[in-house]
Amino acid sequence: MLNSSSWIDVPKPRTKRAPVPYRGSKAEHRVSASPYSVPVAIRGKYDTNNQKFIIEFKYIADERTTKQKINPDVSFDIGVNSKRIYSIYVDTKRKNNNQINIVVKSAIDKMRIRYPKNKRTKKNIDITQSLLDEKLPEIKKSVLG
């Protein structure tokens, strides 16, 4: 049985555009994440059968995902091509409500280590972390009480 919150729309923009010099010239251009890389909504669920707190991200377009176990308490559904985070599963058998934030942040930090050279993946992870910093307390309260 799942206890679920409604999708929470994500306000735009999620990233700031920073000026970047263009190939050594004095001209600058702005770089930002693709709208396809930024979640449009987020929600939480609790799977009572498996005792897992689940955070889901919705994007403009979906893709096939693969499950990656980050540590004994957390696994992610990751986009096969984009490496976007689609879901985060937190095992609550060993972690209580107060530990969820710490466990999720630690798992996201491990994702950064796993993909150190992929700039697009790093940007996706940064966007996800920023969104979780803002919305996770609200999601936990609506799902876990």
Describe the structure.
The chain has 145 residues and is α+β, with helices and mostly antiparallel strands. It has one domain. The chain has helices at residues 100-114, 119-144; strands spanning 2-4, 8-9, 18-21, 28-31, 41-47, 52-58, 65-71, 74-79, 85-91. Strands 1, 2, 5, 6, 7, 8 and 9 form a seven-stranded antiparallel beta sheet that branches. A two-stranded antiparallel sheet has the order 3-4. The two termini are 16 Å apart. The relative contact order is 0.19.
Keyword list:
145 residues; alpha+beta; seven-stranded antiparallel beta sheet; two-stranded antiparallel sheet; 2 helices; 9 strands
Please give the structural blueprint:
Blueprint: E1 2-4, E2 8-9, E3 18-21, E4 28-31, E5 41-47, E6 52-58, E7 65-71, E8 74-79, E9 85-91, H1 100-114, H2 119-144
Antiparallel strand pairs: 1-5, 2-5, 3-4, 5-6, 6-9, 7-8, 8-9
Helix pairs in contact: 1-2
